[in-house]
Known about the structure:
The protein is mainly alpha-helical. It has helices spanning 24-36, 55-61, 64-75, 85-98, and strands spanning 3-6, 45-48. A two-stranded parallel ribbon has the order 1-2.
Amino acid sequence: MTASFIYTxxxxxxxxxxxxxxxxxxxxxxxxxxxxxxIFQYPGIKIIEPVPAxxxxxxxxxxxxxxxxxxxxxxxxxxxxxxxPRAELQAYIDLYIREGK
Length: 101
């Protein structure tokens, strides 16, 4: 049997906001617990370092509207409150829609 744990310490560099279910602290604590119990030393158990997705990966999962909103973020750099990334993304989407893209 094989099992993989996808993890990078870089997860802790981003705050998804209080309403998002992915909590980076929870991921880190889970990793540290597995490490403390030496789970990764068992045969068939490995850690996979995630790699950035390319556009084909994004297209396979997200709809066209979401991809356009992500592209708008790059096109309209707006500095907002980085402690609330969801509000920041919504502001970019709103700007994108106002610009008629």
